[in-house]
Design goal:
This protein is mainly α. The chain has a domain of 128 residues: Tetratricopeptide repeat domain (Serine Threonine Protein Phosphatase 5, Tetratricopeptide repeat, Alpha Horseshoe). It is built from 22 helices and two strands. Helix 4 runs parallel beside helix 6 and helix 7 runs antiparallel to helix 8.
Length: 438
């Protein structure tokens, strides 16, 4: 499964398709949350001067140092496109690393001299597409990416990003095509993960799990050289195993954590699994010092609520304040997280369902399906989640938890199957055969 956000190669990475060594991928996790309709939270005033309110990147952090130096150089030469691209890439990396959307705005500012026009250089188009994707402007991102691949058909980054956007919208036929274009220029774990991710959602989850397990074993050197690629592949494998109810799930998550225990997306997925296993105490221990990133703070508050931790109330108020700030900015991103907050921490079922339905209109991944099913069931309107039942059936998606949530009513049987679903099944089967032959 693709992360929420984009796999982005750093500026120093040169894509050489004649080499067996793939680019290192940085997965941007946008953490913008929209505000729920709650009363304005009162400003939080700490009672103890020693209380840590926020941890900011350290001055000695190499990536922070590189960004400061590059920004200083760009300030002296605002139309230096090479410097602007470097600053934008570093800002996008910081947004992923720290879960701070403000860096995306800074990346946009660095690229301001080159707005989206017919003359925008392809490298700038690619970076703008990344930002659009992170802000969930998927149509805008796709339009920019299609221009990139038209100008530079061998742009691995553009094809991989297109695959991520198409998968987020459940456009699996298009995503498989994108993964195929990506794989046509290089072999290794990254293209295998791209393809296996789509397979895992289109009726071939067991085969996808076996294929990515084999690829991980065959590409140990690649994992060692590019840990972020390994974390992506291992997390995708763990999520696939989780959806299948496979007993290897915990082992796979721990293998990914052993490579990078600070990856925000991985920490969120692992925390969700622990919560599902009724192990909230472990989530509290894992995330108590990671409150800077909103999605992780949400998991922490859920775990504290489950354990009766007194800190839950403060963290819920903190989340509400962050949502309010997001509303004032006009952000409408990550309704999935907002719906979850509203359903489980505010106990507002009807509002949560509205948010989950709006979210499903934009992105359709397993986590989006889950919150829509949960909200619809909690609101006493299971039929509101019929689009998820159609998605499950048409794509052959295998997920033990979603199947259980979708079971009452089985309303999807009344809806004709989309012709496109059959085409996606055929392509997925062909991709599965290709992967299994490697």
């Amino acid at each position: 499964m693709f992360r929420e956000g984009l796999a982005l190669c750093p500026a120093s990475t040169k894509l050489s398709f004649g080499s067996s060594k793939p680019p290192r991928l940085y997965l941007v996790v946008a953490s913008l949350l929209s505000v729920a309709p709650v009363a304005r939270a009162s400003p939080f005033v700490p009672a103890d001067d020693s209380l840590v309110l926020e941890q900011v990147p350290g001055a000695r952090d190499p990536s922070s140092q590189a960004l400061r130096q590059s920004n200083a150089a760009l300030a002296q030469d605002r139309h230096n496109i090479g410097l602007a691209e470097k600053v934008a890439r570093l800002d996008i990396e910081q947004a992923r690393k720290h879960g701070d959307p403000r860096f995306l705005g800074r990346a946009e500012a660095a690229l301001a001299p080159w707005p989206l026009t017919l003359e925008t250089p392809a490298p700038v188009l690619l970076l703008r597409a990344v930002i659009l994707q992170s802000n969930h402007d998927f149509p805008g991102s796709i339009a920019a990416l299609q221009r990139v691949v038209s100008a530079e058909p061998a742009s691995a980054q553009a094809w991989l990003t297109l695959a991520a956007v198409h998968q987020a919208q459940a456009e699996y036929e298009a995503a498989l095509h994108d993964c195929g274009q990506f794989a046509s220029h290089m072999l290794g774990l990254a293209p295998d993960t791209c393809t296996a991710s789509i397979m895992s959602l289109t009726g071939h989850a067991p085969l996808a799990l076996r294929a990515i397990t084999i690829s991980l074993a065959q590409n140990v050197d690649e994992v060692r050289a590019s840990p972020s690629v390994g974390v992506w592949a291992m997390t995708m494998a763990a999520e696939t195993a989780e959806r299948l109810g496979d007993p290897s799930t915990e082992r796979r998550y721990r293998a990914a954590l052993a490579i990078d225990g600070s990856d925000p997306y991985l920490l969120g997925a692992w925390s969700d699994w622990l919560l599902d296993q009724n192990r909230p105490q472990e989530v509290v221990a894992l995330l108590r010092d990671r409150t800077r990133i909103d999605p992780l703070l949400l998991r922490l508050a859920l775990a504290e609520q489950a354990t009766g931790d007194a800190r839950a109330a403060g963290h819920i108020a903190d989340l509400a304040a962050r949502f309010e700030a997001s509303r004032l900015r006009g952000d409408t991103v990550h309704r999935r997280e907002e719906a979850r907050f509203t359903l489980y921490l505010l106990r507002q079922q009807a509002r949560a369902l509205d948010l989950a339905q709006a979210n499903w209109e934009v992105q359709r991944e397993p986590a989006d399906a889950r919150i829509l099913l949960e909200a619809a069931n909690a609101a006493g309107r299971p039929g509101a989640a019929d689009p998820v039942r159609v998605w499950l059936r048409d794509n052959g998606a295998e997920d033990v938890r979603l199947s259980a949530l979708a079971a009452p009513g089985q309303r999807a049987a009344l809806v004709p199957k989309s012709p496109r679903a059959g085409r996606a099944d055929t392509l997925a089967a062909s991709a599965a055969d290709n992967l299994s032959d490697r």
